[in-house]
Design a protein that fits this description.
heterodimer, A: mainly alpha, 14 helices, 76% helix, B: Cytochrome Bc1 Complex, Chain D, domain 2, 2 domains, 7 helices
């Protein structure tokens, strides 16, 4: 750790771990409800569990991105964070808004719009919180000694993510218009600006872990984020095929969303090539596993599995089925969860001064969680394909089909258990690292 | 070989062009002459229905226009499939509705709210969905 203020990141990562744990708990509530074990229905019905599960995902990933920015930006800008006190205020206010939202969902305090369930009053608090965060990050970056491409791409991603939140706050009388602009937030986040954030973090980690020249890595970073926006912006059209807007989106969305895997393929090739090109043998192999793993799994989850149902002719049948859940789980895991776990794995030894990356637990956490998530994805995929065939092709009733595919939800729960064991091991390692310490300052930089 | 400044130009140029195209297509598809939703039929009851749909987070279990929770039936064509009376009974049920094994939240809506929900579903059911309306429910497909 080079700058004392980088320690702030630790508390964001700790909040990540807590929210991630809760997200998994609510995932199990949903999984059990799907096989008829809905004993909590009176207190936590499925729609509550789902809102909590998906919103916790968004919040813990955003918290992770923020922690990553607080760790990376001082080092890239070569100066301390402009205000540590305000960074802690931002963290606490973020946690408070999150807690109010999550508790509120249990009392019908929500907007009921998929992924954007946070009620309007809290939206304003989120905006203030994010503005404060951006002020601290951009203030540090632009008063620093250098402005690297990695830092600029990361900051640009965070700034655009904040701006794109705004269209989701507009009320529309029409469900179709509402849905149209809701995708401006959700799609352009996860298949647009979040990829900038992922690219920025990936670039930083590859520079540190492989020792490849910064200029080479950052040049390819531009190409990758260029491909991301080139395909991803007009690729939003794949959400517009069948929601009641013009047919032109069938063509535009079809062509550009078919190109979206290219950005992920480029990212995977980039990470693997830089790893092989690198001459540095970094001792933190766990961080390296998560970093390279994120690039490869995001290509499979977001790229290939997204492509599998993105063409209009296929999506006509898969739209609104569990096939989407299959793609969603593996894409979020690979592209965003793994990159957050990668930066945490890299930063923890540096901010605590304890080099625990030789422990077997860390490797076990990586493999168990990845095998578990792959199994969950397959379970969702098989259930989704059978659902499409029986419901959309054979015309069977929704609930009869759900009963037919219930065996796949049992498989889903078993794989989720394996995944959870892996994540528990990761969190145990996180706890064992202990608190950040000033003694880690200017310690041997790895 | 590609230089860093060329790579940056590719990123900035590509982003600017596709973003402008996206804005243009948005304006095009939102223009009244391209409306496929019978927007003029959105009255106060439909708006109230949408409000109820959101405040009760129905999308957390059901899907509509193919978007939602994949836990309970798709409701885009629910009036066509089940009829107004059935939908009203479900919305006003004094017990959690769940004849097929999955429980629904007990809403016990009053007559006004139930009528608003039905008006909303009727409006949704008449949207031109580029062919999805023929796939989304068995009854609609038969027709």
């Amino acid at each position: 750790m080079k700058y004392k203020s980088q320690k702030v990141a630790y508390w964001f990562f700790a909040l990540c771990m807590l929210l991630f744990t809760l997200q998994i708990v609510y995932g199990f509530i949903m999984g059990f409800a799907r096989i008829g074990m809905d004993g909590l229905h009176d207190f936590i019905p499925f729609n509550t569990a789902r809102a909590v599960h998906t919103n916790l995902l968004v919040v813990w990933l955003l918290t992770g991105f923020m922690g990553a920015a607080y760790y990376i930006i001082p080092e890239e800008a070569q100066r301390e964070l402009i205000s540590v006190k305000w960074a802690y205020i931002q963290l606490i206010s973020l946690a408070v808004v999150g807690v109010i939202a999550i508790v509120g969902y249990h009392f019908n305090y929500w907007e009921g719009r998929k992924f954007l369930e946070i009620p309007r009053e809290l939206d304003y608090l989120v905006v203030v919180n994010v503005l404060l965060f951006l002020g601290l990050i951009l203030g540090t970056l632009f008063t620093g000694k250098r402005k690297t491409t990695t830092a600029l791409v990361l900051s640009m991603g965070l700034l655009f993510a904040a701006l794109l939140y705004l269209p989701g706050m507009i009320w529309f009388d029409s469900q179709v218009t509402d849905s149209f602009f809701r995708w401006w937030v959700v799609h352009l986040w996860v298949e647009g600006v979040w990829e900038l954030i992922m690219g920025g973090i990936l670039s930083y980690l590859l520079i540190k872990l492989t020792g490849v020249d910064r200029e080479v890595i950052e040049k390819w970073l531009y190409v990758i984020v260029g491909l991301t926006f080139l395909s991803g912006i007009l690729g939003t059209g794949h959400h517009y095929y069948y929601i009641g807007v013009n047919k032109i989106w069938l063509i535009v969305g079809g062509i550009f969303s078919a190109l979206e895997p290219l950005a992920f393929l480029a990212m995977a090739l980039f990470a693997v090539y830089m790893y092989r090109k690198g001459e540095k043998s970094h001792p933190n192999k766990i961080a390296l596993f998560w970093t390279i793993g994120a690039a490869i799994v995001s290509f499979i989850g977001a790229g290939l599995l997204g492509f599998a149902h993105t063409l209009p002719q296929t999506n006509l049948y898969t739209h609104g089925t569990l096939v989407t859940a299959m793609h969603g789980h593996y894409a979020f895991w690979g592209a965003y969860a793994m990159i957050v776990l990668a930066i945490i794995s890299y930063a923890m030894p540096n901010i605590t001064g304890r080099k625990r990356y030789t422990q077997t637990n860390g490797h076990m956490a990586f493999w168990l969680s990845n095998i578990g998530m792959l199994g969950m994805t397959v379970a969702f995929g098989v259930a989704g394909v059978v659902q499409v065939y029986l419901e959309r092709k054979m015309g069977m009733d929704f609930m009869k089909v759900q009963n037919e595919i219930s065996i796949h939800f049992i498989v889903l729960l078993l794989c989720a258990t394996l995944f959870t064991i892996g994540i528990i091991m990761y969190i145990i390692e996180f706890i064992k690292y202990g608190r950040p310490t000033d003694e880690a300052l200017n310690a041997e930089s790895v | 070989m590609l230089s860093k400044s060329q790579a940056r130009a590719f990123f900035l140029g590509g982003t600017a062009v596709t973003f402008l195209a996206f804005i243009g297509l948005t304006v095009f598809s939102m223009s009244p002459r391209n409306d496929q939703t019978n927007h003029d039929k959105i009255d106060a009851q439909v708006v109230r229905g949408k409000h109820l749909w959101e405040t009760n987070n129905c999308m957390g279990c059901h899907t509509i226009l193919g978007e939602g929770g994949y836990y309970a039936p798709e409701l885009t064509k629910v009036i066509e499939r089940k009829g107004e009376e059935y939908v009203k009974i479900v919305l006003q049920s004094p017990e959690p509705w769940g004849p097929n094994g999955r429980k629904m939240v007990k809403y016990q809506m009053n007559d006004e709210d139930a009528a608003a929900m039905i008006a909303y579903f009727k409006w949704i059911g008449e949207i031109d969905l580029n062919g999805f309306e023929r796939i989304v429910s068995p009854l609609a497909k038969d027709k």
